[in-house]
Amino acid sequence: SHEFCAAGATVRVADSHAKLLICDEWAIVSSFNFLSFEGRYRRELGIRVARSPLVDELWNTTISSSRSRLA
Q: Quick check: 48 and 41 in contact, CB under 8 A?
């Protein structure tokens, strides 16, 4: 997670098994473990959503709600 933070990202770890990456107008929901990838090939499945109300909904139901629980 240090590399993500050094690149200007905000890393939130919530009480969830979800793998979610949100950036501006797009989001990725995946089985890929972004923070623990060791470079080995594995079959992963994910979906990228762009310019959709779903991006805001993902933010509001995951990141925003975890912020309020952490505050």
A: no
What sign does the CA torsion over 6, 45, 14, 64 have? Answer: positive
The HSE-up count of residue 48 (CA atoms within 13 Å, CB side) is 5
Find the DSSP H helices in the chain.
2-6, 53-58, 64-70
- pLDDT band with cut points at 50, 70 and 90 for residue 36: confident
Question: What's the pLDDT band for 48 if we cut at 50, 70, 90?
Answer: very high
Does the pTM surpass 0.90? The reply is no
CB environment 37-49: b (16+ within 10 A), e (fewer): eeeeeeeeeeeeb
Spatial neighbors of 18 by CB under 8 A, at least 6 apart, are 29, 62
